[in-house]
Specification:
With about 240 residues, the chain is an alpha+beta fold. It is about 30% helix and about 20% strand. It is built from 7 helices and 8 strands; from the N terminus they run αβαββββαβαβααβα. The protein has helices at about 15-30, 75-85, 135-150, 160-165, 180-190, 205-210, 230-235, and strands at about 60-70, 90-95, 100-110, 110-115, 125-135, 155, 180, 220-225. The strands form 2 sheets. Strands 4-3-2-1-5-8 form a 6-stranded antiparallel beta sheet. Helix 3 crosses helix 5. The longest helix is centred in the first third of the chain and has 18 residues, at about 15-30. The chain is globular, with a radius of gyration of 21 Å. The two termini are about 35 Å apart. The relative contact order is 0.16. Residues about 5-10, about 30-45 and about 45-50 have low confidence and may be disordered.
């Protein structure tokens, strides 16, 4: 590439040279330390300028957090009002197609407590999906925790909602299987040694979402829009 006339010893960073330099830096980092990867999926970057970077699928697996801007009268609107967040529901999945999605509901398909959801259950509500990689052992521990909920009797803990309204941040004794959606997601993350909210006992969906934005080099927001338009192929 030509030299800059103002800085003769500096190579002009054109498209091709930017990609070449980024790949070189990526290779150096890969050989010296564990990579913290962040790609802004909303940026207007031509496909040929996106550097191919990934965690090793031999040692790490992905986790997906789903946040829903619910439209249920009273419940969703009340949660958004008191938490001052656009998101009234949180859930977790372990595959890019978001099948299945695990969460807690007050009432879902005739069941209260831990539920298995799908994108279609969110209809055309806006959702945000964030993703990150964890070591295989932590991923397995999180899956085991989900399985423990599936094998136990669970119920939605409405008292948690009232505690949030009164700004009381205290877990109930023996409350492992009495949860709301956001505390359930937090418990699954904690099983994988992940503490997003750093000591908040009863995080709400908005707090989990905001906390995920505090780790831009580890957690990637891969989608934000109508649930019906989520495309797992784009995520892959």
């Amino acid at each position: 590439p030509p030299r800059s006339p103002l800085f003769p010893y500096t190579t002009l960073f054109r498209s091709a040279s930017r990609v070449k330099a980024a790949k070189r830096v990526s290779n150096i980092l890969c050989n010296t330390r564990v990579q913290d990867i962040f790609i802004d999926m909303t940026a207007d970057i031509p496909d040929d300028e996106i550097v191919d970077e990934s965690a090793s699928t031999r040692t790490h697996k992905p986790v997906f957090l789903v946040f829903v801007n619910g439209s249920t009268p009273i419940i969703s609107d009340g949660i958004k009002l008191f938490t001052k967040s656009a998101y009234s529901h949180a859930a977790i999945a372990f595959s890019s197609n978001l099948k299945p999605i695990y969460s807690y509901n007050m009432f879902y398909n005739g069941k209260s407590g831990m539920t298995t959801e799908s994108l279609t259950s969110y209809k055309n509500n806006d959702i945000a999906v964030v993703a990150f990689y964890v070591p295989n052992k932590q991923w397995d521990d999180m899956q085991d925790k989900v399985d423990s909920y599936i094998s136990h009797k669970t119920r939605y803990d409405i008292s948690t909602i009232f505690q949030k309204m009164l700004h009381i941040d205290k877990k109930l004794i023996d409350s492992d299987y009495r949860q709301v959606c956001s505390t359930f997601v937090d418990n699954i993350l904690q099983a994988g040694q992940i503490d997003l909210t750093k000591g908040v006992n009863l995080p709400d969906p908005g707090q989990l979402y905001t906390a995920s934005k505090n780790y831009p080099n580890k957690i990637i927001e891969i989608y934000n829009g109508p649930a019906s338009k989520y495309d797992s192929k784009q995520t892959d």
